[in-house]
Prior knowledge:
Low-confidence stretches of chain A: none
Radius of gyration of chain C: 25 Å
Largest sheet of chain C: 5 strands, mixed
Number of helices of chain A: 10
Mean pLDDT of chain A: 96
Oligomer: heterotetramer
Structural class of chain A: alpha+beta
Number of strands of chain C: 16
Strand content of chain C: 15-25%
Order of helices and strands of chain C: HHHEEEEEHEEHEHHEHEEHHEEHEEEHHH
Mean pLDDT of chain C: 95
Shape of chain C: globular
Shape of chain A: globular
Distance between the termini of chain C: 81 Å
Low-confidence stretches of chain C: none
Bound molecules: siroheme, iron/sulfur cluster
Amino acid sequence: MSAQPAKRITDIGPPHYEKFLPPIIKKNYGKWLYHERIAPGVFVHVAESGDRVWTVRAGSPRLLSVQTLRQIAALADKYSGGHLRFTSRNNVEFLLDNPDNIEPLKRELQEMGFPVGGTNNAISNVVHTQGWVHCHSAATDASGIVKCVMDALYDHFTSESLPAKLRVALACCLNMCGAVHCSDIAILGVHRRPPKIHHDALRKMCEVPTLIASCPTGAIRPATVDGRQSVEVIEAQCMYCGNCYTVCPAMPLNNPDTDGLSIWVGGKVSNARTAPKFSKLAIPFLPNNPPRWPEVVDAVVNIVNVYAANARKYERMGEWIERIGWPRFFELTGIPFTRYHIDDFKHAGLTYARSTHIRM
Amino acid sequence: MSAQPAKRITDIGPPHYEKFLPPIIKKNYGKWLYHERIAPGVFVHVAESGDRVWTVRAGSPRLLSVQTLRQIAALADKYSGGHLRFTSRNNVEFLLDNPDNIEPLKRELQEMGFPVGGTNNAISNVVHTQGWVHCHSAATDASGIVKCVMDALYDHFTSESLPAKLRVALACCLNMCGAVHCSDIAILGVHRRPPKIHHDALRKMCEVPTLIASCPTGAIRPATVDGRQSVEVIEAQCMYCGNCYTVCPAMPLNNPDTDGLSIWVGGKVSNARTAPKFSKLAIPFLPNNPPRWPEVVDAVVNIVNVYAANARKYERMGEWIERIGWPRFFELTGIPFTRYHIDDFKHAGLTYARSTHIRM
Amino acid sequence: MAVAEKIDTPLLDELEKGPWPSFVTEIKKARQTSPMCDDLLGQLELSYREKIGHWKHGGIVGVLGYGGGVIGRYSDVPEKFPRVAHFHTMRINQPAGWFYTSDALRTLCDIWERHGSGLTNMHGSTGDIIFLGTRTEELEPCFQELTANGFDLGGSGSSMRTPSACVGPARCEWACYDTLKLCYDLTMTYQDELHRPPFPYKFKIKCAGCPNDCVASIARADLSIIGTWKDDIQQDDDAVAAYAAEGVNIQKDVVDRCPTRCMEWDGAKLTINNRECVRCMHCINVMPKALRPGKERGATILIGAKAPIVQGALLSSVLIPFVPEEELEETVKELINRVWEFWDEHGMNRERIGELIQRVGMANFLDAIGLEPVPEMVSAPRDNPYIFFRTDEEQA
Amino acid sequence: MAVAEKIDTPLLDELEKGPWPSFVTEIKKARQTSPMCDDLLGQLELSYREKIGHWKHGGIVGVLGYGGGVIGRYSDVPEKFPRVAHFHTMRINQPAGWFYTSDALRTLCDIWERHGSGLTNMHGSTGDIIFLGTRTEELEPCFQELTANGFDLGGSGSSMRTPSACVGPARCEWACYDTLKLCYDLTMTYQDELHRPPFPYKFKIKCAGCPNDCVASIARADLSIIGTWKDDIQQDDDAVAAYAAEGVNIQKDVVDRCPTRCMEWDGAKLTINNRECVRCMHCINVMPKALRPGKERGATILIGAKAPIVQGALLSSVLIPFVPEEELEETVKELINRVWEFWDEHGMNRERIGELIQRVGMANFLDAIGLEPVPEMVSAPRDNPYIFFRTDEEQA
Ligand code: SRM
Ligand code: SRM
Ligand code: SRM
Ligand code: SRM
Ligand code: SF4
Ligand code: SF4
Ligand code: SF4
Ligand code: SF4
Ligand code: SF4
Ligand code: SF4
Ligand code: SF4
Ligand code: SF4
């Protein structure tokens, strides 16, 4: 790497977290005894010292303007000694040492349009990605669908009435930055046509051997086009993964007519009760229908409703489905089972039903 | 196919089973109500008609001389109206319509050296293969080990005292004719060196492309040996599967110094309670030590004993291990866990422990 | 044949000790009528001494017009043991359910004494009667005597193998269809496929009357036909109470072991939520007098089991969740024909049907044989996003 | 910057309706200070109309001496929306546990208002602070202001990524080690790997204080460090009784949901067979006042999670079942060094560590990094017989 100018500061890492911890947290760090729910979006942690800290959690669109961030900072100044944190699902948390601040804070948050909730057996914020706001690879938008879905699931954010936690995630392409592979309900943008090849650009921008090697199915082959070296894609072998596009900008997969969404269910991350699980295919394809994506919203709401009505207490989506069996899941949700549901990737054979355990 | 001589009889299939059914069976065919245990090796089936049929089951070495078969036939004449059957695990069953015949029949069987038992929660006969008695592919003998193991497990054949059924099987090479892949305890002959290549024979007897294609790991490559076309084996890629030998006699794997046995546990076939399961590796290697294979016998007896002492009622070997976890299985049996236990075949990644569920 | 000279087998003699019946004793018994057995003992003793087998890779031998049923076998030390220079095996279709009369058994013994070693396996692990060891020139005469007496050869090589069946309705209260009849019918229908290898590889069929699967069909058959039922378990409350009274711990041993936990026991009454029952048989197994399979019986058809060579072992997987008993034979035959057609067209050499299905994908296989996908075919839908969307239909 | 002219966004306006806070509103808010946001709205409206994104594949842009931390982004319709012709993202190391003071937040806002769109993600899904959208020439000045104020860039490309941690001991009673400290220490130790991509591909580390895994480390980190304990669950019987009195159904909701069924409840007393407990957290989750993780705390170290591209998604798998808290930092660092060395030597381009381990086999990987195999590393031993026996040792 090139030499640095004399006073340029680099490699300092993030600020030390201790600088940002509220005094009550610093004092009781590592000495918490237990917590209790107070209300949706509000819980209290009790320390060995007897100290208590009340947390108020608010939902956030994640994409935040500096203007809003300043408003949030102002709320922290007013109610939580200038301290706040964000959660691993992009909500905002205010840590209060005075319970009298809870209600006024909640009121101000609600006035700002920030719902309080997401705790316990609520549907918390949707972990998601960039979509049309920033990514080149997106088969759909991210923030837009999240907004529509959360509008529909709003009451599940502000109440804690589900059988268990229900985590929704969205990723706008198969790269799955939204980590949708282990979510109770995952919304995944999909391409359904092979890449279009821009031969001129390809020659300029891409290394053909790397490109060919990038394709997991071997669908890309060297070809001579207009008398010059390029590649071709064997369409029947392409599974629209987009890996070629990641290594070569001249192979875009985006296609307004055929891109859309798929829905996956039953994943989880926690080790509580059952081991972490991958999400499994529920709906192979729904159309991209901006600005409100009604098909996607309906599909998600339907699954949530069927789950809410049928699962037992403490049963995550995947645990519930494993108990009732996938045939019953499809029956109860009314989702058709298709050839696309049957795995045909590397370990497909292991998903064939290899017992006679069948509900008739 | 070539024309047949005039009166030559072909394609007649087996005799119709009805010809061989005892009258009481014919009468109550498909109309059985329930059964009861009477004693190890003896049970009774009760029909809707009220009829009863008593079954007496005797263990057999499977490899039977016509002399012994005739003795068995004579017993059938004497006690079961000239009717008998064999079971799917190669035991002999006499079907009696008169319970007074049970004890005399048992006595005569025992005098002949044929133990009565194998029912219910006993260890039944060992499903096995040919070994050195008849197969070219064997890494070990079959009948000899079975004899030694059953000598040691004899009391488990003649009593019904285990937590559940325990099925033992043996196969003398990876072809696994003994279907050991789904047994509570499986004994499997293994080669541990790559095939030796007999180049002259190879040229005469084998098709090189077929041979190369037969190797699942791509370990076989064309090579010029003494100026003529043959093949070579990349030793590091060979997993001693013997598939090359099956298609080409000039590639034997048998090796008296390195052949031996491995022990597998926890498989099952029935759908009772849990789905059918594959057997998993317990002991990667034990030496071929004829005529009594003490290491193998000890290993099997140890596993049976630990299972018998620890499993719950109705818990098959694999169900028990799944309940207690594999680490505990290795701990309780004292079997060392090695690098060979970690799968490295096609679906290996799926056997890595992908949760924090750990007994400490 | 004359009784041969005594040979020394100190190692094998060790295997005549101990309580379990000895195969060495059997071989020695057969020496009475077959000198082949002397050389078999001699060669086996040599194997025991050297820790290596002494059989050569089999060649193609058989009977006229058949492509299977005989496993050729030659000694690699014929100079030492000339009487087992040839030692071929004949596989013979067993009667369904392995029922015999003593006469039939004796007939088999007589034939084999005349034409071979006098050693058998009752039975081979596919299910055939195994005649163990004879010379090439004895094969055809032995075969002719067999067919004259109503027996026929089984399969080997790339042929269908003799189907096998659990004892089923003959002696088992749980048989949900007639396993012996189906086994026999299939064996008779496919005589040609049994005797004249037409396939890329072997094809095995096994018929089990209920999910206990006493012929291990789900592990060892390319086509596994396993009895089951559709309606409710037949339940006799008094008999349940009697079991409880006799000391069966209904809560622990039955209810708590039900895989779907669909039963409840209040100390007096057992309630089964049959809609959740997966027909595993456990509760019925424990209390055969009190519980029985339902009355609407039939079978689940599964496909594709095999041993591990070379892509890894497979258990059969669900193809048709339920076929009523009365439609079973027709459905199975139609299915077999379609499956074989597909296998014939797409199977590679030595590729079992289960491997082929995995290679081409279950969905493509279903398309080809004309079955609709149903969720019962999978333990779970795919967890990877690599869907080959079809270009022709279903676009936006 | 001046407020730009109004542009028409009928489709996006639909997304300002409904109760959930709207990102469109946020973009509109940011227009107050950044005209980039007008063009962003314009281009996004176009995407909504045409159902296609309008960003080009990123190029390599960044700050001096760093190889990552910036995602280059260019509009494919710059003629229509010149103010988002460049729209690069800056990734910034978040403080461990995502704690801020209002001042720190405002500092970030001020910097970003000066140098970019004024739009952020709080946070990106790896955990970074995301500054969303600026021009190439703003990168270096923005960076210099950031470091001057104590912030630094995160990772991108084939670099280590900013580690992240659950709130842990800061506010959670279940933290079995100090997640924030470990996260911070690792971030600081590997500044070079974070900023100057040295690897075949990305490497993510996440620190979760207990098996609830509130940072999804087992699904989303190449190295997952998940707190756990070795001794018995701390149990307060009175508090258990109090939960029961309050209406918790201890049998159904706790005991029956324990994965190992290692608990018993006799209506008054809860007994845990701690030797069978797999530390799943469920019982503790349900009764936080009554049950707590043991006192002998530490972590399980797992390796290899990733999203599906292209060999299929992976969850991390157990590498070290238990490391005591006091040895954790040292063990993790030593392990990381050995893992990276191995990855460096054997990893192919764009091969994550989890994929590499699968490719070479866990046992070979363990050999290379010097760990003994233990059965806790696998869910079950192999079920196939294809063992690569070593030729050097262990023969007969
Ligand atoms: C704040 C946060 C950690 C952070 O550093 O930011 C957090 C905090 C707590 N989690 Fe969590 N979890 C947080 C993300 C997660 C995640 C990660 C994710 O969602 O991506 C998981 C894994 C989810 C999964 O399995 O898919 C997670 C799985 C749990 C569980 C296990 C639930 C289960 O039954 O599977 C518990 C236990 C419980 O809730 O009973 C838990 C419990 C808790 C407790 C009660 C722990 C405590 O004693 O303080 C905290 C309050 C939870 C609440 O919301 O009611 N936390 N928790 C995260 C809040 C995210 C949000 O804004 O909604
Ligand atoms: C005779 C035979 C069928 C045949 O056509 O030959 C048979 C007959 C019966 N079996 Fe079986 N099974 C027979 C092989 C099998 C096999 C196949 C095998 O071992 O290769 C299995 C699958 C084994 C496995 O899972 O690995 C088998 C799994 C069962 C089960 C399920 C046990 C379980 O809990 O997993 C039952 C139910 C029970 O025993 O409670 C059962 C029950 C029965 C019953 C009680 C059925 C009945 O009501 O008549 C029969 C008497 C069993 C006994 O031995 O006490 N039978 N049974 C086979 C006897 C073999 C032998 O000589 O030992
Ligand atoms: C005789 C028998 C073993 C026994 O002692 O019982 C047997 C013996 C042989 N089997 Fe087998 N198999 C026998 C049942 C099985 C079974 C069990 C079953 O059918 O239930 C299996 C596992 C199930 C399956 O089919 O997958 C079995 C899986 C194999 C395989 C591996 C096939 C595969 O696809 O994985 C081979 C290798 C091959 O076909 O090339 C094989 C090959 C052989 C050959 C022909 C050896 C060869 O490579 O050519 C053996 C001849 C031995 C000999 O000299 O007599 N044998 N073989 C069984 C047949 C007797 C009968 O007809 O009743
Ligand atoms: C910004 C962010 C999404 C978001 O909106 O939060 C993101 C955005 C991108 N990710 Fe990601 N990834 C982001 C977190 C993730 C995660 C989640 C995580 O880290 O917990 C994953 C799944 C976990 C994993 O690493 O496997 C993820 C898996 C990928 C992959 C697939 C990698 C794989 O091995 O499977 C790619 C493709 C690649 O690397 O070529 C990718 C590539 C990309 C690129 C750089 C697109 C590309 O092909 O070059 C995206 C840039 C979008 C843009 O224009 O801003 N991103 N990416 C996340 C990073 C923010 C941050 O630093 O905090
Ligand atoms: S999921 Fe795909 S489209 Fe969405 S941000 Fe990640 S790489 Fe971009
Ligand atoms: S999208 Fe994926 S499968 Fe299709 S050509 Fe590109 S890399 Fe290959
Ligand atoms: S298991 Fe192997 S050695 Fe034994 S009989 Fe079968 S093919 Fe021959
Ligand atoms: S034994 Fe198997 S792996 Fe080894 S060379 Fe032969 S076919 Fe290949
Ligand atoms: S499979 Fe079922 S029907 Fe057949 S013998 Fe076994 S228990 Fe009876
Ligand atoms: S058959 Fe099996 S699943 Fe059905 S009720 Fe009985 S134990 Fe439960
Ligand atoms: S992972 Fe465990 S320690 Fe960390 S916040 Fe979640 S519950 Fe608390
Ligand atoms: S932590 Fe989980 S495994 Fe352990 S006792 Fe509690 S519920 Fe059972």
